[in-house]
Amino acid sequence: MSAGAIVETPNAKLDLRGTPCPINFVRTKLRLEQMQPGELLEVWLDPGEPVEQVPDSLAMEGYAIEHLENCTDFFALQVRRPAYSSAEC
Prior knowledge:
Helix content is 27%, strand content 26%. It is α+β, with helices and mostly antiparallel strands.
């Protein structure tokens, strides 16, 4: 195990390799909406447009990007459902 950020075990995983944009973003968002506030989702994305677009789109929607790892053939993105609504801030 290498030194660095501690990566938390996700509450759920979603394999979207081979899924085109924007379907991969839509499926990720729908899965996050099914999860409890504060839970962590790991999403596997293809290199290129999916990994370039999905994290930015999720961040713009208010989701916290916790970790993004290059796993050679795909990227593992960890995103957290907010524990509270931005309206409560």
